[in-house]
Amino acid sequence: MDVRKTYKLYLNGAFVRSESQRTYEAQGMNVPRSTRKDVRDAVRAARAAFAGWSGRTAMNRGQVLYRAAEMLDARSAEVGRLEGVERGEVAQSVEALLWYAGLTDKLAQLGGTVNPVAGPYFTFSMPEPTGVVGIVAPERPALLGLVAPLAAVLSGGSTAVALASPALPLPALVLGEVLATSDLPAGAANLLTGRHREMLPTLAAHRDVNAVEVSGCDEEERRKVEEAAADSVTRVVATEPDQWLSPHTALAFMEVKTVWHPVGR
Question: Which of 159, 184, 179 has its CA nearest to residue 253?
Answer without folding.
Answer: 159
